[in-house]
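Slide 14.
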Amino acid sequence: MSECVLNSVKEHRKQAGLTQEDLAKSLGVSRQTIISIERGRYVPSLALALKIARFFKCSVDQMFTIEEE
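Slide 15: predicted structure.
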């Protein structure tokens, strides 16, 4: 059985009225990193996942979920 990590980064970012560039600068990563996370092509490190959750004032569980395929 394989697992897929889903996230709600794009939804949170749009709700906050931020561009991908704004979020990237705030987190100290590239815009390409944000694009890859939002599209589900890149699973961030634990440190980055914590930074993202902290930035949006939510838990990591609210931002990221594991779905079994």
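Speaker note: The mean pLDDT is 96.
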